[in-house]
Specification:
13 strands; alpha/beta; globular; two-stranded antiparallel ribbon; 48% helix; 24 helices
Amino acid sequence: MSSSSRLVLSLILFLLLTPALTAADSPAAPPLQPTFEAAACPFENPLGSMISPESMGFECGYVTVPERHAVPEGPTIRLPVAILRATGENPQPDPLFLAQGGPGGDAFSLFSLTMPNSVLREDRDLVIFNQRGTKYTEPDLTCTEAQEALPELLPLTVEEADQRTKAEYRACYQRLQDSGVDISAYNSLENAADVEAIREALGYDEFNFYGVSYGTLLGLHLMNTQPQNLRSVVLDAVVPTQINFIPLVPKNTDRIFSELLEACQAEATCRETYPNLEERLFALIDKLNENPVFIPLTDPETGQTTDTRIDGDSLLGLLFQIFYLPDAFAVFPKVVTDLEAGDYSFIEDIGALLIFDRSVSDGMYFSVICAEDADFDPETVPLEGVRPQIARNAIRDLRSSYIEMCQLWQVEELPSSVDDPVTSDIPALLLSGQFDPITPPANAETAAETLSISYSFVDPTGSHGALSSSNCIDRIVAEFLDDPLSRPNGACLNSQTPADFVPPGALRLALLSQINRLDGWAVAWTLLAGVFLLGVLSAFVIYPLVILIRLIRRKERPASARGLRWGSRLLVLLFGLLAVMFVLGLNYFIFQAFELEAYLIVSAISSSAAPLFVLPFILALLALLILGALLLVWLKQAGSIWGRLYYTFLTLCVVGYVAMLAATGMFGVLI
């Protein structure tokens, strides 16, 4: 994917929209009775395949819907559904349906992680579903051609990558057409009709709907076209139907940088620690546009590493994506400072997760966008007041990423009525984050103008998608679902404490980087280190036990090499003691990083942990001494043969543990 195309496409990858349709334009309800077919859950637990979704409480299956709801006898689509049953003693009959954004996002990758233990599950069933054309649906509109070509595209110039990218999407479009997919049927109106079909198939009389980002558009469509069974809606990171998000990308990009820079200026420590941040940031952008760098990005799924071309524009795009993360404002100053110093480790870690993300169906994305929001004139894009580094290539990028792509991705345009505001008296809760890069709080205000029963809340520290980001927001949502006709109590938002800005001296920890990448090797190394340490600690049981047995038997050991025997054992015991101290200290600072999510984002821990990382070097020195002691023990035949064999085992465990410290980067923290 080209740098310019990646910039704009990555800017929007997780959100987006569609507008509303009047009841007269909505597709006819399918006359056939939809049914739910139980099946094994198609997705894995995001925390690891060792724990199945079923063991977490998910009941999975498929609902079959018409590809065109107006033609129920035509081709069909299978939609994956996962249900989490209510855990409370008196569950309510109305479930909460949860829809992901995108368009094309995978709901299971998000909600299967956050919902099993959610407070929302106490009172009602939670129903998670993937929208037509997304991952695990049949058919899936993911363009594998573009995914497979990505490693070849990343080192290319803008022009070279743009041509190759469009060629891959042209091939994808042709493949889908040749397989019989009606690509124009994968739009928001058919998508909204699917939701009602799922409700009917599951046998619920009434339901509540939660949508995030593009999912808020589904909520608005439901309010407009399928209101009869809809009890309430929660719209999180709102995109009103009457707003086209695409022409506003440059202004929203400029806005979020202003929010982040102003937040640092408003906080004394950040202002003093990171002076002249804006000038430094955009000087860095200009420098990279003149002299791009190549950094290694490793695909977390395949392990393949690609030298990726990073210029100023592509860096802006990556930073924009990072701002979707909670507390991203708190890491922004440190990231800029590290990049200035030529340290691209943060981009190597987080950038790889973003660029190689396979959870979004790009075919579904283009089918939705090209049907609804590509009808704009790039020359009319509002650029007044936008910083020159953001405005410079905005028109070119929007034309390439949308106008030209939609000329390639031919679908039927939806009627202009989809751009009308949605007017409804169905209770609606609207949630926004002050640091949301793409759906600012003003969007919720616009949508609420025509919703007669609506309550809007802004999380002053939130980003894109408020649900599950804080207990406060979850309580607001739960209270709303309990009584949608009354305004929830949002007083807890007034006491939301912003995360501390990560200081420049925070220590980068490779193990956290591996955790962020969901690296299986990190788990293997950590488990292996635990096994080796347990082997070393066995000396604290075996040696006292041997001494006790000898005392009972009154058996004296020969005086020869007694000092060597005791010295070698004390080295192992000292090693074990210091290793335990290191593990306990390391776990303390890692758990602290998990509590302070901003530290976790940059794979760092507090600088106060610095003395702890002297211990790996001491342990390495002790390992050398233990190796030397082992050699002497065998040369001088100190102790019994069993004693020497056991000491050999201990030495192997010591060396293995030190090797695992090296594998997890513990020797590089202070360097």
